[in-house]
Write a structure and sequence with these properties.
Layout (H helix, E strand, L loop, with lengths): L1 H11 L3 H16 L1 H14 L17 H13 L4 E2 L2 E2 L1 H26 L9 H29 L4 H30 L7 H17 L1 H10 L11
Antiparallel strand pairs: 1-2
Helix pairs in contact: 4-5, 4-8, 4-9, 5-6, 5-9, 6-7, 7-8, 7-9
Length: 231
């Protein structure tokens, strides 16, 4: 029956090119029939499914954590100069600042992922948690760096000056973060908590990519007053 229909169909087509194409198509479907059926079933069963069943804990594999390490390593390779001479202290201070930031950001990112209620939180609760986590990251790495430098004998006034310079250069990034978080939680493009947190982590990764630039700008604006201290 199938062969008769195929033969009549080929007989009714006058163009040799069309006949050749049809024959190739029939052969392809015949050979790969099982694979095509499986592909169709997979597509139908998963259409519209997207990330609906994904859990926030899967973001433990997000590349933001590699980005933190990479950015810290990029800063470690930087060299700073004062009046044309290599400034070892300034170079080391910049890396220590970055290292503390990377460490405490990673701690808080993993903490929010591991929150047992993260997947079922209502919109406002999750949004407030994200904003609070962002503030806690900042407070912790600033305090860790401040205490580290004070223990090294750097004057409190000088420590606050460096922190102020860094916050000045990072202000636009942090301000943009808050705007984007508000947009993520008010948008229908992120229908569940996984999608919202994925957007947040993508945003954080982008900001961390800018970190080496901001660290370089911060420490290039310092004078050489730390050059000769024992650090």
């Amino acid at each position: 029956m199938y062969d008769k229909i195929t033969y009549r169909l080929l007989e009714s087509i006058e163009s040799p090119i069309l006949i050749s194409i049809l024959i190739l198509l029939i052969v392809f479907i015949t050979v790969y029939k099982t694979s095509l059926v499986d592909l169709f079933k997979y597509s139908v069963l998963n259409i519209g499914k997207g990330n609906a069943d994904k859990k926030v804990k899967e973001l433990r594999s997000h590349d933001v954590f590699n980005t933190l390490k990479r950015s810290a390593n990029e800063v470690k390779l930087m060299k700073f100069y004062t009046h044309g001479k290599y400034d070892k202290v300034k170079t080391k201070m910049c890396y220590d600042f970055t290292k503390n930031k990377a460490k405490h950001c990673a701690i808080h990112m993993k903490k929010i992922i591991d929150n047992p209620n993260i997947d079922s939180m209502d919109l406002d609760t999750l949004k407030n948690l994200v904003l609070r986590t962002q503030v806690d990251m900042h407070v912790d790495y600033i305090n860790a760096t401040r205490n580290f430098w004070l223990d090294k004998g750097i004057e409190k006034e000088d420590v606050e000056h460096i922190v102020h310079l860094f916050e000045k250069f990072r202000y636009d990034v942090v301000n943009s973060f808050e705007h984007r978080i508000t947009a993520f939680f008010g948008s229908g493009y992120h229908p569940n908590n996984f999608e919202k947190m994925l957007a947040v982590f993508d945003m954080w990764a982008m900001g961390i990519d800018l970190l080496p630039r901001d660290m370089q700008t911060t420490f290039e604006n310092l004078n050489g007053k730390f050059k000769d201290i024992k650090y």
